[in-house]
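Prompt: I keep going back and forth on a fold encoding question. Comparing notes only helps if you start from a blank page. Show me how you would write down a chain together with its backbone fold. Please set it down just below, with no commentary around it:
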Amino acid sequence: QVHVVESGGGSVQAGGSLRLSCVASGFTFSMNDMTWVRQAPGQGLEWVAAISNDATNTYYADAVKGRFTISRDNAKNTLYLQMNSLKTDDTAVYYCAQTFCSNGYCPAGPLLGQGTQVTVSS
């Protein structure tokens, strides 16, 4: 059974940093592209970043480019999102998901975890 557990969220002031983790199980992590998406209060899902299965390619939404870094450790079945220079607009629940990237388009698969809350205050 496919399972993901996101963690690392918290409350920080604007300009601060957080590192999110996503531990995956139930599928061959190293063969899957992965993505982070987020959902702000009262808003729909927003795609944030994606990474190819072997980490050779990464993709970012314009809103986070230059501030966030997606990475992975296939030996640990873990996906990461390093978030720097956080803004109040980054406040959201963050989810990881499987994806398949084609020409930079990386739609998220089903959200199977509970997500992790990130709150950025001014």
Summary: The longest strand covers residues 18-25. Strands lie at 3-7, 10-13, 18-25, 33-39, 45-51, 58-60, 68-73, 78-83, 92-99, 116-121. The chain has a mean pLDDT of 97.
